[in-house]
Structures are given as C-alpha cells and as structure tokens.
Amino acid sequence: PTQPLQVPAQRETTPGPPATGGLIQDVAVWVGPPGVGGADAGLGLLLTAYDNQNSGLSTFGLDGQQLEQEQDGPTVSVAVRDGFRLGQATRSLAVTANSVVGLSAYVVDGFQTTNRVQRIGSGPFVANSTVFNTVALYRSPGTGRFFVFAGTATGSLQQFELSGEDGGLSSTLVRPAIDVGGPITGLVADEELGFVYVVQAGEAIWRYNAEPNGGTTRVSVASLTGANRNLSGTVNHLALYRAANAQGYLLAADTGSGTFAVLDRRTYAFLGSFLVVAGDGGVGAAESPRALAVTALPVGAEFPEGLFVAQDSINGGTDNLKLLRWDAVAAAFTPPLRVDTRPVTDDGGTDAGSDGGTDGGSDGGGG
User: C-alpha distances in angstroms, 240 versus 59, 205, 359?
Assistant: First the structure.
C-alpha cells in the first residue's frame, strides 16, 4: 500500500487525573446547535470512555480541559445521538458499555455548567449478563425508532430498541443475536443508508442491514486479512463522516499500522490513510490509536469546518485525545476529501439548523 499521509494535530486533551487512571477506550462528539449565544458554530463536548474502576465516562471541552467525570467504573465504549424522545422533551442520548454493569444511558447537555451528563435511571438498562465492549446508536430513517447495537468479544451482535416515553429508559431485544464469527472491536451505524458496520477482529469490516428485520446477510466492506489488504489485522473503532445525499466516508482506527483509514461511504473504495503527527505548540502525535470520532458540523471557533478526534495510546505513558480540523484532513488527500458543514436531516438532506447533539450518530462511538 501507499505510504500514509501526515496531518498535524491542532489541540490535545489533558490526560485524566492519575487518581482515576485507566485508558481511553472510545470517544464520541456532542455538538450543540449553531448560533447559540451569538456563536457561529456549535458548542462541542468530547465524551470519553475510560476503562478504570475509579473512572468511567469523562467529558472534555474543545480546549482540552477535563470538565466532569461519571465514576461509573470501567467504561469501554460510548455513542451519542440527538433527537431522543424522553418524556415530553427531545434530548441528546449517550449510551455506554461498561464491562462490569452493562449498558447505561445518559442525557447530554453541553450548555449546562455542571451536570452536562446525567444518568437516566439508577443503573444499567441492560444488565451485564453479556459483557459488551462496543456500542452504536441508530435511528431508523423509515420509522424513527431508536436502537442501540452492542457487540461482544465473543462475536455476538445484539440490537435493542430504546424507548423513553415515561421519562425513564427501557430497552427491548428486537432481533436474534447475530454471530459475527469472532471478536467485535468496532461498530458504527449509517442511518441514511440503513446499515451497521461491524469490525470482526483480524478478519473484516462487515456491513449488515440495520433494521430489526434485516436478517444476517452481510457484505465485506474491507478485508483485514490477506496480502492485498489495505488495513492491518488490528482495527478497532469506526466513525462515519456524513455529507449530504448519503455521501461521505467510513473511517477506521487502524491500531496495527498507527493510522486512520478512509473508505468511500457508498463504494467502500479505499481512499488512503493518514497519520496524526505532532503539531505546533508541543501538541503530540497520535500513536497506536484505537478510537476516533468525527463530525462534519462546525464545532467551536477553532473547528469551523468540522472536527476529527484521534485517540493517542502512548502520549508519554498517559493516553489522551488529539483534535484536528476536518478540512486539514480533507486537504491532505488528492483529490481532497469532501468538506460539508450543513447539518444532515433525518431524510438525508441538509438544512440550516440543528437541534443539538451529534449530526446523526456515533462518531466512533462505540464504534
């Protein structure tokens, strides 16, 4: 394969306090609606999953400073999506996979000065009889129903419908568990096209139908084995860059090669990969990344044309996140990748506004 491109990091997060410890296993981006408070771009919040018993779901601002921490125990995946009906309100919903307690849900509101993330209910909505290690949220374009996909290290993919009609959160298993055939290390859902993408460790990135009646038929999107593969055998989380009319990119954290791979969202053509290298002001590179997140939306004053977030597993011994302008990533490619900052609506088009939350899915989340 051709040599990876190089894109410098612009900012980085402060490592979590040593007392909490743990490693970042996943990251998702929450984006507030543009124009609030006179700002031209939405407020941004980074949701990170730490796998330490004394930490859990932690939030960071775009300046890299840690804001809050939910001490929920070892958390290994996180996904966030707006537009979830909770009681009489429409809220941004985050779901985490915790290796001790199961799947938990939170309301996210980055405009608050405290309690930006609040748990829904007193415990998990799916108890840990099955140990899930990655999650993705999906809202059906046809029915508007909300779902969470959850994968396990034994290769089981499960889909639950989520409901918040009574102000709490309930879940219902809506299809038989799918046996992927090996450990699942990443998930992301494509709402416009109705797919869920699944990383089977060391084997392939698979595409499944995301609807509850979608069956078990799958398509190989990218091979992780064989001499002619474009990715290494060690791929972890996935993210989706959503442009208008179901254009955009499927991105993968290729831990084995230390890069981020970019595939065309529609054709799955491999467009190349890039390294996140050291930037100005002492911002370090992202090494051995296992998590990523991306949004096409404007996020804060520094990321007016979208944001890419890379997890750095090294960082002098305490891992952190690197933040990059999406347009800088796009410009590194020949021809350049798309830059489309218009919010994608639920019908796959665009409009000039947003109701907050992400631009339609996990950014990594879990994936």
Answer: 21, 13, 10
